[in-house]
Amino acid sequence: NFLIVQKEGSRNVSRETKHYNLQAIIAVGFKVNNERAVQFRKWANQIVKDFTIKGWAMDDERLKNSGTKLTKDYFEKLLVKIREIRLSERRFYQKITDIYATSLDYDPSAKATKRFFAAIQNKLHYAIHGKTAAELIVDRANHKTKNMGLTTWEGSPDSKIHKYDVVVAKNYLNEEELNQMQRIVSSYLDMAELQAERHIPMTMEDWEKRLNGFLQLWDKEILNDAGKVSAALAKKHAESEFEKYRIIQDRLYKSDFDKFLELEDNFKK
User: Fold this and answer.
1) Which Pfam families match (predicted)?
2) What b-and-e string marks burial along 165-185, b requiring 16 or more CB atoms within 10 Å of the CB?
3) SS3 assignment for the chain
4) What averages of pLDDT result for each successive group of 10 residues across the chain (269 residues)?
5) CA–CA separation, 128 vs 148, rounded Å?
6) Which of 1, 181, 193, 217 would disulfide-bridge 16, Cβ 3.0–4.6 Å?
7) Which residue pairs, CB below 8 angstroms and at least 24 apart, start in 151-159?
8) Which of 83, 78, 127 is nearest to 104 (CA)?
9) Under 8 Å CB-to-CB from 156, ≥6 apart: which residues?
């Protein structure tokens, strides 16, 4: 181990950092079969290719920035990205995936990325009400209840409910659940912003661990599987309930024109 001094925000912080023999790194990098090893092999192959064709290999960006990519400019750009994510109109769980995409080693084709993207929506739902998105839809989509169990939909409360509204799990959340989800995501974004301000780089693995740790900090249960109901089954159930609800909705629905005629009749009386 060697003592390394690095700047975190306005402070100089010293930490003991593990250093490994280069030959050991190369040997392990070409034998192990995880995501980091794949990234290492891509990098190493590019170096060998450049050296074979040109007779030399050079990392221009690192040379320009004193041997590191983690410059002040890198973290300033990262802060801008995080603040743009906060202000965006994207759904709660999409904002978490956007933060994940700012990872230092982000690879959209990596197995870890696909796993994270597939699980994030269910992980947030499970933390709030103890069900996956599909389980929530099956539990709450009911043609006999008011608005088929939906609390919000496109154009609500005056617009009709459409088939595409009933397959969105967020549309079934009550006000308290929505507020909880909003607070969790907002706090997670605060943490991401703080990490960037302190000049602490985050990898894909770091963000995944932080999300689980963050939910535990809120005393939330962590989802460790895909749940008991598939997305296809939830969609089938919601659409089946909607076909029954559509008849009720058509009977009760008052368009702007209907309301206008009622107003005219009342005025004449």
Assistant:
1) Virulence_RhuM
2) bbbbbbbbbeeebeebbeebb
3) CEEEEEEECCEEEEEEECCCCHHHHHHHHCCCCCHHHHHHHHHHHHHHHHHHHHCCCCCHHHHHCCCCCCCHHHHHHHHHHHHHHHHCCCCHHHHHHHHHCCCCCCCCCCHHHHHHHHHHHHHHHHHHHCCCHHHHHHHHCCCCCHHHHCCCCCCCCCCCCCCCCCCCHHHHCCHHHHHHHHHHHHHHHHHHHHHHHCCCCCCHHHHHHHHHHHHHHCCCCCCCCCCCCCHHHHHHHHHHHHHHHHHHHHHHCCCHHHHHHHHHHHHHC
4) 68 77 78 78 80 70 59 84 87 91 89 88 93 96 96 91 95 94 91 90 90 88 90 97 94 68 66
5) 21
6) 1
7) 151/175, 151/178
8) 78
9) 150
- Identity of the amino acid at 70: L
Structure token pair of residue 170? 């967020």
